Amino acid sequence: MTLTTVNVALGPRSYDIVIGTGALSATAERLTGIIGKGQPAIIADEKVWGLHKDALLAVTGDVPVITVPSGEASKSFASYERVMEALLAADLGRDGTIIAFGGGVVGDLAGFCAATLKRGCQFVQVPTTLLAQVDSSVGGKTAINSAAGKNLVGAFYQPKLVIIDTDLLKTLPERELKAGYAEVLKYGLLGDEVFFGWLETAYKDILELDPLAVTRAIETSCREKARLVAADEQEASVRALLNLGHTFGHAIEAEAGYGGDVLHGEGVAIGMAMAFRYSTALGRCPGQDTGRVEAHLKSAGMPASLADHPGAKGTAEALLSWMGQDKKNVGGRLKLILARGIGDTYITDDVDPDHLLSFLKQEPGIQPS
Ligand SMILES: NC(=O)c1ccc[n+]([C@@H]2O[C@H](COP(=O)([O-])OP(=O)(O)OC[C@H]3O[C@@H](n4cnc5c(N)ncnc54)[C@H](O)[C@@H]3O)[C@@H](O)[C@H]2O)c1
Ligand SMILES: O=C(O)C(=O)C[C@@H](O)[C@H](O)[C@H](O)COP(=O)(O)O
Ligand SMILES: [Zn+2]
């Protein structure tokens, strides 16, 4: 078994991402080294725990486990409170280690618990979805949702180690694989046209979990994420490129509620297509590139607009109002990631809300005001 290691270079907060088949058992010594003499605890997605607990327990030995229900609803204040009380009852101190075992939901929740437990304890990510393996386990964005919007309560807090065992993906449902693929695609669209070109031919292999294709997709995504995070840990500049499609996507998710009608990756897929269409509407991106993005999403069986997704809804006004809550906004100005073409994106706060509203009103599937 060959493992690949990508380092996230953040000075004293630097850490490795270890990627490959069998990565979990191969990193056992590193994990126990991080745990040291402190008290560890596992925070696991309930479904993942049922499927894969033996793989993790074989590495950690007997460790307290706190499970949370599967799904976005677990990124809530209620779930955060329950998990924090359980961690305190398990006697974790600052030298304790929280091991997140699940997709992005568990990673974001467990990371926020780690950031705030006694003002910070150790944290290790063991992501189990494609989305979490290519994106959410890396970079230290941790959060829960609020009634006001997605990820509005959180912290930047880096893990000590990310263990990406691609064997864990074998049980992932197809819809979740596709949702994760949206974030893979993001890395091509935001800055790597060659990678996008490869994805146009390799997407079937990735979705069928061909080991070489999956590993290349994960490694390429993690390298680019590690590069952007190392350059701008707290999203003061270039890191915002990782938010391509998210201002639209988070609004679509929020409007659908967090009950699983629209998955994060599905919102991002629609949001990226919207960002390209809006860039074309502004005369900044050739329509040919936008057409290529839409065509690829359709080939991969993913939505490119609200009309393609039965759970996506909302009026232009409602979506714009959610976008107004976005954390990137400064001084009340909307900030968007737009495109000059595939692999060439930029961050702008030069957004006219009236113009954006007219654009949204013409989007396929948007509800009448
Ligand atoms: N922090 C970040 O940088 C970042 C980046 C991207 C997304 N996110 C967040 O991540 C979340 C989405 O993550 P997600 O797509 O992983 O969703 P998720 O965590 O809800 O997992 C998706 C589903 O797959 C199931 N599952 C997980 N692993 C499995 C496995 N190996 N086999 C079978 N089933 C499995 C889960 O039970 C769940 O039902 C969103 O909340 C999003 O905001 C965060
Ligand atoms: O790591 C980042 O930076 C990202 O933006 C990655 C996104 O895929 C992820 O969904 C993130 O949680 C969104 O961040 P937010 O700041 O818009 O909540
Ligand atoms: Zn995302």
UniProtKB/TrEMBL annotation:
Residues 180-329 form the 3-dehydroquinate synthase C-terminal domain. It catalyses: 7-phospho-2-dehydro-3-deoxy-D-arabino-heptonate = 3-dehydroquinate + phosphate. SUPFAM superfamilies: Dehydroquinate synthase-like (SSF56796). The keyword Cell cycle does not apply. Pathway: Metabolic intermediate biosynthesis; chorismate biosynthesis; chorismate from D-erythrose 4-phosphate and phosphoenolpyruvate: step 2/7. This is 3-dehydroquinate synthase. CDD domains: DHQS (cd08195). Coiled coil: none annotated. Belongs to the sugar phosphate cyclases superfamily. Dehydroquinate synthase family. The lineage of its organism: Bacteria, Pseudomonadati, Pseudomonadota, Alphaproteobacteria, Parvularculales. It comes from the Bacteria. It is found in: Cytoplasm. Zn(2+) binds at residues 183, 246, 264. One of its GO terms (molecular function) is metal ion binding. Its cofactor is NAD(+); Co(2+); Zn(2+). Its EC number is 4.2.3.4. The keyword Nucleus does not apply. Pfam families: DHQ_synthase (PF01761), DHQS_C (PF24621). Its main location: cytoplasm. One of its GO terms (cellular component) is cytoplasm. NAD(+) binds at residues 70-75, 104-108, 128-129, 141, 150. Keywords: Amino-acid biosynthesis, Aromatic amino acid biosynthesis, Cobalt, Cytoplasm, Lyase, Metal-binding, NAD, Nucleotide-binding, Zinc. Residues 66-178 form the 3-dehydroquinate synthase N-terminal domain.
